[in-house]
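Forwarding these from the shared drive since the link keeps breaking.
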Amino acid sequence: MISPYKTMWILIAFDLPVKTKTQMRIANKFRQTLKNSGFIMLQKSIYSYYAFSKERCDIIEKQIKQIVPDNGHICFLFFTDRMFKMTKHFYGRLKVQAERPDFFDTLL
């Protein structure tokens, strides 16, 4: 059995400039590269990757470091599988502002 204290997760959080179409294209290419490398999108700029060991994490880190876009900021966080399983997700209630159209009363 693989120990949850030795298997690892990588969490990448990043901030990339997206003010121009070129920057957006570069940011989207970076996201696609993460997905093609086995990362799972948690949020638009937060991705996770399951690795079997710290050594595998180190290899992935070196690969991603080589493709960081100019003016980008990438943050790597490393967690054991045990720690990652303790993460909790909270979602707010969906609130939609719906206004009745002016002509609604004439339809009744």
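-- next protein --
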Amino acid sequence: MEERARGPKVSASITPCASRIENGAVEDFSIDQLSPVVQDNDDLEPGHVAHLELVRIVERVYRRYLDLLRNDLTRLGVDDVSPSQVMMLFTIGGDDLSVRDLIDRGHYLGSNASYNLKRLVECGYVERSASPRDKRAARIRLSDEGRHLCDLIRKIDDGYHRLAVRDDEQVREFAVTFMTLRRLEHIWTNAARYGEARLV
């Protein structure tokens, strides 16, 4: 099978899409037009949420978000990167990182991180250069195209945030959820490193 030529696609996809968004050409897609999600809490009892069930729903939520992000990329005309690779762009953020820093920050597997990073560099979303201290070590940062794509995704995500958080009570619930997930991240990290779950 002939391999498709690779290279930056920003000028052919992202920039025109950004113009269409600014000009209102995608007005038919409005987050605010979606109905609130009806939650079925009949099977939930306070204080009886099993740890494993929480782990499973975290996994499902993440996979569902990748599906959502895949649809958004399609609407933007971006077909050269995957949702997981876009999330790696957000992990890099505005920093200048080593590859090791990126792997540690995103808790990536080495092989997966290497493949996704190589793809992002090939497509022009990430710039990779030799470290001034150690020519064998690489430094990575977002290119202009990578920052532009992240900005577009943030604008779309603002709409999803408004859908999920509609009043003061939901604002508080959102904050509690975030703090709970961060606490679990610390517990699981310590458990993986030291063989036990240390409270934080």
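The chain has one domain: 51-190. Confidence is low (pLDDT under 50) at residues 1-29.

- D.
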